[in-house]
Amino acid sequence: MALTRRTSRTPSLSREEGVREAYAAHGGELYRFALRGLGDAGLAQDAVQETFLRAWRARERYDPQVAALRTWLFGIARNVVIDLHRARGARPWLRSLADPATLAQAPATSPDAWEGLVHRWLVEEGLRRLGEDHRRALEETYLADRPYDEVAAELGIPVSTLRSRVFYGLKALRVVMEEMEVSL
């Protein structure tokens, strides 16, 4: 799993230019997320717009100590996509208005798939908050599913040290996730 880069300055949604910066930084990813979930380019654009509108309205509730702006926006986007998906299910005639080529390319997704995607982003954010040694040990053993002896040799440490890093890394990750108020 490739981790995304963290920007040195997180846009603030408390002013208009901050919303523009947040859109520039995350709008494309949010659009692709919505497009995968909805299968309709126009509806995906609406989802991104609604995501930023909801974020603007709830800007006082955003706490950068709990989660990164990207994670918070994807949580909002997930809810918007689910709402739009449900609305489309309640109005099946809306699906006939979508572009057939886009519908044919869109993978079939469910709210469970979106939930998994959001969970992966939350775990990614939690991993960013760990120390380098613990994060690397977890990424290589758990996420890349590599054998302990291979990873230990690559890192130049004994296998027992790697096992300790994994053990304490998981404990630290659990604490970070609790601080972020995430239960997976």
3D structure, described in words:
The protein folds into 2 domains: 1-128, RNA polymerase sigma factor, region 2, helix turn helix motif (Rna Polymerase Sigma Factor, Chain: A, Orthogonal Bundle), CATH 1.10.1740.10; 131-184, Winged helix-like DNA-binding domain superfamily/Winged helix DNA-binding domain (Arc Repressor Mutant, subunit A, Orthogonal Bundle). The protein is built from 8 helices and no strands. It has helices at residues 16-38, 41-57, 69-90, 100-105, 111-128, 132-143, 148-155, 159-179.
Tags for this entry?
184 residues, mainly alpha, Rna Polymerase Sigma Factor, Chain: A, Arc Repressor Mutant, subunit A, 2 domains, 8 helices, elongated, disordered N terminus, sigma factor activity, DNA binding, DNA-binding, RNA polymerase sigma-70 factor, ECF subfamily, sigma factor
What's this entry about, in short?
The protein has 184 residues and is mostly helical. It contains eight helices and no strands. The longest helix has 23 residues, at 16-38.
Would you report the number of β strands?
0
**What fold name stands as the CATH topology of the largest domain?**
Rna Polymerase Sigma Factor, Chain: A
- CATH H-level homologous superfamily name of the largest domain: RNA polymerase sigma factor, region 2, helix turn helix motif
**Number of structural units classed as domains:** 2
β-strand percent reads under 5%
- SSE succession: HHHHHHHH
Radius of gyration, in angstroms, nearest whole number: 19 Å
How many H/I helical runs?
A: 8
SS-based class: mainly alpha
Tell me roughly what share of residues is in helical segments.
Answer: 55-70%
| Low-confidence sequence ranges | 1-8
Assign the CATH class of the largest domain. Mainly Alpha
Mean pLDDT: 80
Main sheet characteristics: none
CATH architecture descriptor name of the largest domain: Orthogonal Bundle
Shape, principal axes of CA atoms: elongated
